[in-house]
C-alpha cells in the first residue's frame, strides 16, 4: 500500500532486530522481504473475506448501549414486592404462619360474640337457682388471687420490654436522622422524605432478585464421576457470541486435541495467587502432605531456581501477598503450575507457559 511513496524502508524481525534496511527499490528486491509482503497481503485478503457479508445481507448490530437508562419503579408497590415482604414474614412455613394469623383473628371475633351470649346465660341461671353468696365470694377470691399472680408478672414484663423497645427504636431513629442531616449534608426535608419512603427498598430488593441470571445446570450437563478419563479434548460445531443479540465471533468451530498433545494459541495473563502461605495456595483444603507439595514444586522447576543455602528461598511456609505481588512473574507461573500438578488433573490449560523466572 505504501510502496509508491516509500523512500527508505527497514525490515524488522519478530524479536525486534533489524533484518535489512536501505532504499525502497533495493529492499523490494530482497526475496525474504518480498515473501513477507506476500504473506501479509494474503492474510489481509483472508480477513477481508471473513469480515465481508454476502450481497443483499445487512449487518446487524446489537441494540445495547454503553450507558443504559436507570430502571426506576413507578406507581404503587408491585405485587411481587409485596409477595417478597409477606413471604419473609412467614419464614420457611408461610402457609402455617398466615393460617395461624387468620385463625387467631377469627377466634378473637368468635370469643367476643360468645362472651356476650355467655354473660346472658350466666345471669339467667340466678332466676332458676338460689344464689350462694358465700361460696361465690370464696371462689371469686380464689380465682382473683390466681389471676393476680400471673397478671402482675405479665404486665411488669410487658412494661419492661415495651419501654426499652420504644427507647431503642427512638434512639435508632434519632441517630439515623442526625447522621443523615448533620454528617451527609442533606436537607432535613429530603432526609425525612427518605426515611418515610424507606419501604420502597422492597422494590430495589425485588429488582436485584429479578436480575437476569445464568441458566441453572441440567442433568445433561453433569459429567460422570470418572470424567475426565483422559486428556483428550473434542469440540464440534462450536459457535459463540459476546452478547445474546450480538454477532457470532466463532462460527461452527470443530477441533480435536489428542491426549499428550501440546498446542499453543492466545495471549498471556497473570496467574492468580491467594494471600497467605505457599502451602495454602497449593493446598487450600489441607488434603495433601508436605511431601506431595514439595514433589509438585520440584517437578514444576522451583527448586532448580534456588539452592538450599539461599537466604530468601521459597518454602511452604513462605508468605504470599495478594496476587503474588512479592514474587516474580516466572515464580508465579511455576507456583500456579505446581498447584495444578498437586491436583493430578488430566488436562492442563497453561496461559503462556514459556515464561522465565
Which key phrases capture this entry?
mainly alpha; 5 domains; two-stranded antiparallel ribbon; 6 strands; elongated; ATP-binding; membrane; transmembrane helix; ATP hydrolysis activity
Structure, described:
There is one protein chain. By secondary structure, this protein is mainly alpha-helical. It folds into five domains: 3-50; 100-128; 132-213, no CATH class; 230-263, no CATH class; 276-343, no CATH class. 48% of the residues lie in helices and 10% in strands. It has helices spanning 24-27, 31-51, 79-90, 94-128, 133-183, 188-196, 201-209, 278-282, 290-300, 329-343, and strands spanning 8-12, 18-23, 233-241, 248-257, 276-277, 319-320. A two-stranded antiparallel ribbon has the order 1-2. The longest helix is centred in the middle third of the chain and has 51 residues, at 133-183. It is elongated.
- Low-pLDDT regions: none
Averaged pLDDT: 78
Radius of gyration (Å)? 40 Å
Order of strands across the main sheet: 1-2
How would you sum up this structure in a few lines?
The chain is 48% helix and 10% strand. Helix 3 crosses helix 7.
SSE layout and pairings?
Blueprint: E1 8-12, E2 18-23, H1 24-27, H2 31-51, H3 79-90, H4 94-128, H5 133-183, H6 188-196, H7 201-209, E3 233-241, E4 248-257, E5 276-277, H8 278-282, H9 290-300, E6 319-320, H10 329-343
Antiparallel strand pairs: 1-2, 3-4, 5-6
Protein name: ABC transporter domain-containing protein
Pfam families: ABC_tran
Transmembrane segments: 95-119, 161-182
